[in-house]
Amino acid sequence: FANLSADNYGVWAPAMESLLKTHKLWMVTGGFSCEPDFVDADNLTKEEKREWRDWMEEMGAAAGMIFLCLNDTQKINIEDYRRRDNLMGMWTSLKALHHQKTMTTRFTAYDTFFSICKDPDKSLSALHARVIKIMADVHSLCPSNFNLSKLDEELQIMALIHALPMPEYTTFVDSIFL
């Protein structure tokens, strides 16, 4: 699967979760596996030291795997968490960043949706599945009170943005998406 970019979180996240599960690293990533408890934290037994080391290695392996599955533009978003070995912070910040229910994230999803092209080596059913998946991503980014009038407003704004001549409006358009 493709590395995480600005517009593929909806496809990337389940694939990344599956990859972590196949390597038995999802439990630590998903927050289902906590740091081992110790009877006496100042006087660890060999077994407790081994448990803690194994847990830390799992955390590091999962964090490394996630980091390797990010485009360079996405790595900056989790750099602080990576440096502090905060796996849960990495995962939740990526989700929060890419799953914000804002007009900007919907614009990115719409842009992806309207840019879909049939790959020459893919079937029509694969194209159809891709369209359905990306539309589901768009829907997941809409707040519960989202309606047709809000969609009309957003499409008008999006049309205006796309109509601006580039490169003279590049800085302006980029500032909208910050």
Helix content: 55-70%
Spatial separation of the terminal alpha carbons: 27 Å
What is the rounded Rg? Answer: 21 Å
Strand fraction = under 5%
Shape summary: elongated
Q: List the domain count as a whole number.
A: 2
> Main sheet?
none
Question: SSE string, helix = H, strand = E?
Answer: HHHHHHHHHH
- Strands, count: 0
Low-confidence stretches: none
Mean pLDDT: 88
Q: Count up the helices.
A: 10
Structural class: mainly alpha
Pfam family, one: Retrotran_gag_2
Protein name: DUF4219 domain-containing protein
Provide a descriptive summary of the structure in words.
With 178 residues, the protein is an all-alpha fold. It has helices at 9-22, 26-29, 46-68, 72-75, 79-83, 87-98, 103-114, 124-140, 148-163, 170-176. Helix 7 runs antiparallel to helix 8.
Short description:
It comes from Armillaria gallica. This protein has helices spanning 9-22, 26-29, 46-68, 72-75, 79-83, 87-98, 103-114, 124-140, 148-163, 170-176.
What order do the helices and strands come in, and which of them pair?
Elements (H helix, E strand, L loop, with lengths): L8 H14 L3 H4 L16 H23 L3 H4 L3 H5 L3 H12 L4 H12 L9 H17 L7 H16 L6 H7 L2
Helix pairs in contact: 7-8
